[in-house]
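Suppose you are handed a protein chain with no further information: no name, no annotation, nothing but its sequence. What can you learn? This example shows the usual starting point.
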Amino acid sequence: MNIAVIGTGYVGLVNGTCLAESGNQVTCVDIDVEKVEKMQEGIVPIYEPHLDVLFHRNIKQKRLIFTTDLAAAV
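A reasonable first move is to predict its three-dimensional structure. Written in structure tokens, the prediction is:
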């Protein structure tokens, strides 16, 4: 399933990462260009236990991507 998550704050990023871990293709969208660039580089902007493991695994598997382009994500 293709899913777009709007906002990569605490709730959005954790939710998007968990949906990707479940096998979905997830595109997380945010208006903060610097934050999106950091996540594209593999930097997790928040702390949640073990989120970094899931985050990196799903980026590597290409199930979790980040963008500022809402129209493309939807």
